[in-house]
Design a protein that fits this description.
With 275 residues, this protein is mainly beta. The protein contains no helices and 26 strands. A four-stranded antiparallel sheet has the order 2-3-4-5, with no helix packed on it. It has a four-stranded antiparallel sheet with strand order 6-7-8-9, with no helix packed on it. A four-stranded antiparallel sheet has the order 10-11-12-13, with no helix packed on it. The model has no long low-confidence stretch (mean pLDDT 87).
Length: 275
């Protein structure tokens, strides 16, 4: 792991030969190799936190607090937009598919854009819960929220169908699509997978903690989280991987560049696979 700045990093995307990470207080950093990172700077002077980022259609698009969207072709020069000029609600995650960007956030809000700069008036999927994650695959968008009793599925990002959350499924904080299926991170060591976003199967890992996020890197799923480790008698950060989203490797403990165990989630940490 590399220490980059002093703020928290919430999301990362890769495109145009560059990694771009965004986080708290409006900061962004870039890297061409995932190891050496530029000095963090605020996007267009904004101090609002950025929660999600994606690279699609030739541009990086980030979403964050107070309905802000930021767009860049190179990850360095950014232009900010506001979906709702008077809003104070937050966007949590962003996806791209079917020639459309879709953001989800507070009180079940959803907005779409064909270019990342002009956005539709937000509609509400489930106004009583915040939407935390969204992914696109198999011709459809799938979104989930914290404490929501519904999973949303849509082919166009505008019209959504609701499906009941399966019994025992604790909604996770991150979702990804790869290898023909959606994968959602969860708590109590559980990870969920679905081919269509409607019917989900629970898979367990060898830890009992929370998996905070999951990505797909064109080869495998990678989940990151935090759990109790008996060997160290403390909570540690953990990583597990899977080719198919169903069978997961034994969780490994995340370490810093000096081989030290990371027992808390420090600010400014970015993880890259050890070579």
């Amino acid at each position: 792991m590399a220490v980059v700045g002093t703020n928290s990093w919430n999301a990362i995307a890769y495109g145009n030969g560059k990694y771009v990470a965004v986080g708290s207080s409006g900061y962004v950093t870039t890297s061409t190799d995932g190891i050496n990172w530029t000095t963090p700077k605020q996007i267009a002077g904004s101090s609002y936190t950025w929660n999600g980022i994606i690279y699609a259609n030739g541009k990086f698009v980030a979403c964050g607090q107070h309905s802000y969207i930021a767009v860049s072709t190179n990850g360095t020069n950014w232009t900010t937009y506001k979906v709702d000029s008077s809003a104070t609600y937050n966007w949590a995650d962003i996806a791209y598919g079917n020639s459309k960007f879709v953001v989800v956030g507070s009180s079940g809000r959803i907005s779409t854009s064909s270019n990342g700069t002009t956005w539709t008036t937000p509609n509400w999927f489930d106004s009583s819960h915040n939407l935390l994650s969204i992914a696109y695959g198999n011709g459809k968008f799938v979104t989930m929220g914290n404490g929501s009793t519904y999973i949303g599925v849509s082919t166009n990002g505008t019209t959504w169908s609701k499906y009941a959350v399966p019994s025992g499924m604790i909604i996770g904080y991150g979702m990804a699509f790869g290898n023909g299926k959606f994968v959602c991170s969860g708590s109590k060591g559980c990870i969920f997978a679905s081919n269509d976003g409607q019917t989900w199967t629970k898979f367990t890992t060898d830890v009992d903690g929370t998996w905070n996020d999951v990505i797909y890197n064109d080869e495998m799923f990678i989940a990151v989280g935090r759990s109790w480790n008996d060997s160290y008698s403390k909570y540690v950060n953990t990583i597990t991987t899977s080719i198919d989203g169903e069978t997961w490797t034994s969780a490994v403990v995340a370490k810093d560049e000096n081989g030290g165990i990371i027992t808390t989630v420090p600010s400014g940490i970015i993880a890259v696979p050890a070579k």
